[in-house]
Amino acid sequence: MNIVNLFLEAAGKKPNKVALIHQGNEITYAELKEKVLKQVTYLQQKNINKGDKVLVYIPMSIDLYIMLLAIFYNGSVAVFIDEWANKERINQCCKIIDCKGFAGGWKAKLFALWNKDLRKIPIKLFLNSHIETYNNSPCEMQENDSALITLTTGSTGIPKAANRTHSFLFEQFKALEHLIRGTENYTELCSLPIVTMLNLGYGKTTIIPDFKISKPKSFKPKQVYNNIEKHHIESMILSPFYTACIGRYCVENKLQNKAMKQVITGGGPVFSGTAHDIVYSFPHANNMIVYGSTEAEPISHIEGNILQNCLIDQGLPVGIPNAQTELYIIQFLPDEYHELTEEEFDKIKCKTGVYGEIVVKGKHVLENYIGLAPYQLNNKIKTTSGLWHRTGDAGRLDSEAKLYLLGRCKESFVYNNINIFPFIMEYSLKNIQGLKEGTIIQTSNIPVIYYVPDTNFDKEIFNSALVKLGFENIQTKPLKALPKDPRHHTKIDYGKLKEL
């Protein structure tokens, strides 16, 4: 199945419904379909054929989805680069993936003149709405044909080029259906590019944010909240950073929006404080926090009204794994290829309550990457029953099959004969009076607590809190800010922190 058929089906059922809204401009499903079909003809005229890879460097906009849908329709492969990507990341992408076409806005085209790797891409593409005749039949695809290649944020090293096939995207569409289906009549604000694309298969009206996702410091929660009220937005799917900012703004100003029916966040950790703020801000909304990754989205989810009352000292609760996800906790293994028999795999599974690495399997779990073969080896365990994805996250399952996160496996270390997970420590530090946030990492076998002081920071209160946590006489260093992942601005970038 060509993934674009989901959009075509929605467009056939709801031609006059608004599909996308951005910066005051809106487009119906019928209008979007016509523009997509014209763009397909343009791609074919430019000799972009089935299987050809097209580097797409367009900010979130209506134009982005015209281009993506046209590429899928044509049977080509979209290589998606986030709008925050820098020169180094773009060059890495060009080295990993051999692209025949380059599609970008005028700023990207100007940038391409000065970038030798982009100049090497032979065909430069624009949005073309002047085509008068077009092909009505989407290219027939095999389930393992590539549809979309996305690069991970690279928090564990060099970015990985995730190969999302047509089958994978369709299974992801189905895996998210129980969270999203039933909200087709809601107007939804969504900052996640892939979810917005899937929304076009659900027949939803999606508002693309006006704020720059690549510039979190410029985010104005007051303006976004006012737009939520103005446009009667009933559903919201945002990264945790933006969700937390809006929730904090509402609590500080004692604002409650009782028209919001659904709030979903994912892409990074959400602690109980943020969950409380969102439950308060949108009291009638179905509030859900989704746990997943590039390779497996979703894995599980938890309701905000449950999370707001949870303690995090034994792990961050993320709910029960979804029905589409088969999940186990296994012993920590070295980063090397593992091909195990079922008997060998059974021996490394952890008992209930014991922490280890989270591994998952399912039709919506990514099987391979483009290029960089070591990642294919390091991130998978092959057994006779199928391929298991190693998430790199430490976790545990309780007696009720509820999943708890402890953070990245690689960042854990032993201190005073106790296993320390920086992720859990971050929650404790965040709750110390006078601290904005903090973490603990180990470099050269020396643990150091890095923290960001607030205006009311008190050194004595800080030291006293550390003693209670069992970290007396530990080295501490203040920072103006902790480096975060560039996509969601939520997870601490431990690699960059160690460089600092």
How would you sum up this structure, described in words?
By secondary structure, the chain is α/β, with parallel strands linked by helices. Among the domains are: 4-167, Rossmann fold (3-Layer(aba) Sandwich); 332-410, Roll (Luciferase, domain 3), CATH 2.30.38; 412-499, ANL, C-terminal domain (GMP Synthetase, Chain A, domain 3), CATH 3.30.300.30. 32% of the residues lie in helices and 26% in strands. An 8-stranded mixed β-sheet has the order 2-1-10-9-11-12-13-14, sandwiched between helices. β25, α16 and β26 form a beta-alpha-beta unit. α10 (240-252) crosses α11 (272-281). The protein is globular, with a radius of gyration of 23 Å.
Summed up, what is this model?
By secondary structure, the protein is an alpha/beta fold. Helices cover 32% and strands 26% of the residues.
